[in-house]
Automatic annotation (TrEMBL), chain A:
Keyword terms of this UniProt record: Membrane, Transmembrane, Transmembrane helix
Descriptive protein name: Nitrate reductase gamma subunit
Biological source species: Desulfosoma caldarium
Transmembrane region(s): 12-34, 72-92, 112-130, 142-163, 183-206
Gene3D superfamilies associated with the record: Transmembrane di-heme cytochromes, Chain C
InterPro entries given in the database record: NarG-like_sf
From TrEMBL, chain B:
Cross-referenced SUPFAM superfamilies: alpha-helical ferredoxin
Domain of life: Bacteria
Protein name from the UniProt record: Fe-S oxidoreductase
Lineage per the UniProt record: Bacteria, Pseudomonadati, Thermodesulfobacteriota, Syntrophobacteria, Syntrophobacterales
Cysteine-rich domain: residues covered: 317-406
Organism in which the protein naturally occurs: Desulfosoma caldarium
Length: 219, 448
């Protein structure tokens, strides 16, 4: 188990970061090249102000008409995303690792907070999964891959949570935690999870397409 | 929900196999960064469903959510790389013409701003390439090709109608003319062929307003049709030709701007989609485009036209924001302010402005003809309820398709309203200065 752990936190981690960042970079570069060639409409009407407004309104809680129309889902959706980013970035254990590897670290949240937020993320994930089953307009769009991705997204949180509480075999849990985290990072550039960066581009586009050209607020 | 299949242009299909190569070419040509990104990051969250009036009007049928519509059509076309059969294409036609008016409301309700209208329009182009298009649109396309306008009207008939209307109007307003092909005029006024063909009084009303406002204007003898049904039929090449004819005529006449009649999609075509369809790389029309809502608003705001306060409408009035004038044209405030100049009791619909719902007659629905009427009435339920909730007795709308659809909804849902255009009301309410008042009726001899 120790060797697995060492491998996963050593060479495999490097590969993961390279694929994650490189993959996103390549996808962005490819789309940029393609847009230059075929999406003139993107550049002809570009407007930073409208792009910014469009993005910010969708990042602020209930900042858009659409989110206000479904307040409960929006709350879950926002908390879920905040937790997804905040727990891995600000967990003190992760920051210790950063510090050990590079001598730099981010601000750390207390373990109690991280623990609580993890539970919230899992609850939100469960809600989103159930919503996919019970709301007909979501069910009709849902494929097995959506559940797979949701499960993979939650896996590092489940395993991290169990490992922190030392429930179950600790070492196995840690290996699974690192492994699931790496799988998730590797998948991001190649799946719909790429929206973590592409969101800013599509949102910006509709912002200036509807806003700068027509004055309509796309939020 | 009705399951009436979309009509098909005669003389195609079943005889030949599907032209997969052609489909692949169109898929490839449109496979840019936008469509690629939209199709790949849609998270299938379903948030778009609530924004669509088809979905709302059919008891939240999940098959009518915008995401489902583009996934079942263009999404699948990309996934199967164009290897599809006639059955699939007919199902697509049913969706892209029968269940979407490309009103673009959903793109404002999608977290990623996926522009479903563009995806639907691309699918229409693919279907058109296989000879599939609703019959009403197919007929219009033939007319455009032959005569340059959707009703197949000859230049001679058009010019005659203009002259006849100018003459008729002189009984009410002295000196009304409809100048044809006047070089260097400020505005080149373009219309929906429905006007010269079936409602020539629309031309007369415009002429009266422009005369009283002492405008420098002209009507072109060609390129006067500002509508663009090939755009809705999926014939992009012809759609480009239609706008190019209009632009080139404006350049030839040396006018300062093209003025668009009270039509929604004509404005969207002329100002936003047209330049791309016609191949202008910067996406801008060669002359400015002005919608009559904007111009009429300025006339009254600036006092070029005065409204008789005693004649202002007393009954409750509501304003229908045409998708392509408001959401896709940015003129919702001008429209509203204009109505408030004309009416004492203005009552807004909810939602309104850029978030208003399509009436259910857009995207080519009205010209698609009677075989779509039952579906059109069923999906217009949302609009009918919006109107009823205002308690208005008059619905004003600056769009021919909204006008026809709401007139039909009025009967279908017994709304008890009167549907009116802005021109009609302005003509009734405007103060006619003395110099435009006819001497006397009865055709008296002119004194020297």
């Amino acid at each position: 188990m120790q060797t697995w752990y060492a491998f996963l936190t050593g060479p495999a981690l490097w590969v993961t970061f390279v694929v994650f960042l490189g993959g996103l970079g390549v996808r962005l570069a490819f789309l940029y090249g393609l847009s230059r060639e075929r999406d003139r409409v993107f550049y002809n009407h570009m407007d930073w102000r409208w792009a910014f407004k469009s993005i910010v309104h969708w990042l602020l809680p209930w900042g858009s008409a659409s989110m206000r129309l479904q307040p409960v889902f929006s709350a879950v959706f926002i908390v879920f995303h905040v937790g997804l980013l905040a727990v891995p970035l600000f967990l003190s254990a992760h920051n210790l690792l950063w510090d050990r590897a590079f001598g730099v670290s981010l601000w750390s949240m207390s373990d109690a907070w991280a623990d609580g937020l993890t539970m919230v993320v899992l609850a939100c994930g469960l809600f989103l999964g159930i919503r996919r089953l019970v709301r007909p307009e979501v069910r009709i769009l849902t494929t097995a891959w959506d559940f797979t991705l949701l499960t993979l997204t939650l896996a590092p949180f489940v395993t991290g949570f169990l490992a922190y509480r030392q429930w179950g075999p600790y070492e196995v849990m840690m290996v699974l935690h690192v492994l699931s985290g790496e799988i998730l990072l590797v998948l991001i550039p190649f799946t719909k999870l790429g929206h973590m960066v592409l969101f800013f581009f599509t949102r910006a586009f509709i912002g200036f397409e509807m806003g700068a050209r027509r004055g309509a607020r796309a939020w | 929900m009705s399951h009436q299949a979309a009509a098909v242009e005669p003389g195609n299909v079943e005889v030949h196999p599907v032209d997969v190569k052609k489909i692949q070419q169109i898929l490839e040509a449109n496979n840019g960064a936008r469509i690629r990104t939209w199709l790949s990051i849609c998270s299938r969250c379903g948030l778009c469903a609530e924004s669509c009036f088809f979905y709302l009007a059919h008891n939240r049928n999940p098959r009518l959510s915008p995401a489902y519509k583009f996934k079942a059509t263009l999404g699948e076309l990309y996934q199967r790389r164009g290897h599809v059969d006639w059955d699939f294409l007919h199902r697509c036609a049913d969706i892209v013409w029968g269940e979407c008016t490309t009103c673009k409301r959903c793109s404002m309700y999608c977290p990623f701003g996926i522009d479903v209208a563009t995806l639907i329009a691309t699918t229409r182009t693919i279907l058109y390439s296989q000879g599939i298009t609703p019959q009403g649109l197919a007929r219009a396309v033939v007319n455009y090709r032959k005569t340059g306008n959707q009703m197949g009207m000859s230049t001679e008939d058009f010019v005659d109608t203009c002259e006849w209307m100018a003459e008729e109007s002189q009984d009410e307003i002295k000196g009304v003319t409809i100048p044809i092909d006047k070089k260097g005029a400020k505005y080149m006024y373009t219309v929906n062929p429905r006007e010269p063909m079936f409602y020539p009084q629309d031309l007369a009303m415009a002429a009266k307003i422009l005369t009283v406002a002492e405008e420098d204007w002209t009507m072109p003898s060609t390129g006067w049709d500002c509508t663009n049904l090939p755009m809705f039929a999926g014939d992009r090449a012809l759609a480009g030709q239609v706008v190019r004819t209009m632009y080139e005529k404006a350049v030839e006449l040396g006018v300062q701007a093209i003025l668009i009649t009270e039509c929604g999609h004509a404005y969207r075509s002329a100002l936003f989609e047209g330049p791309y369809l016609a191949g202008y790389p910067d996406g801008k029309p060669p002359v400015p485009i002005v919608h009559s809502v904007q111009l009429f608003y300025e006339y009254i705001r600036d006092g070029r036209l005065r409204i008789d306060p005693a004649k202002r409408l007393k009954e409750p009035v509501t304003y229908q924001d045409p998708c392509n004038v408001s959401r896709n044209g940015g003129l919702w405030e001008e429209g509203r302010k204009l109505v408030q100049f004309l009416a004492e009791d203005f009552r807004d619909m909810h939602p309104n402005r850029d978030h208003n719902h399509c009436c259910g007659g857009g995207g080519g629905y009205i010209p698609m003809g009677p075989e779509y009427k039952a579906r059109r009435m069923a999906s217009g339920r949302v609009k009918a309820e919006q109107i009823r909730a205002t308690g208005a007795k008059i619905v004003i709308t600056p769009c021919h398709n909204c006008f026809d659809q709401i007139s039909d909804l009025n009967k279908e849902y017994q709304l008890g309203v009167k549907v009116m255009s802005l021109k009609e009301i302005i003509c009734e309410l405007m103060v006619v200065p003395e110099k435009f008042q006819p001497e006397d009726n009865g055709g008296d001899e002119e004194q020297t």
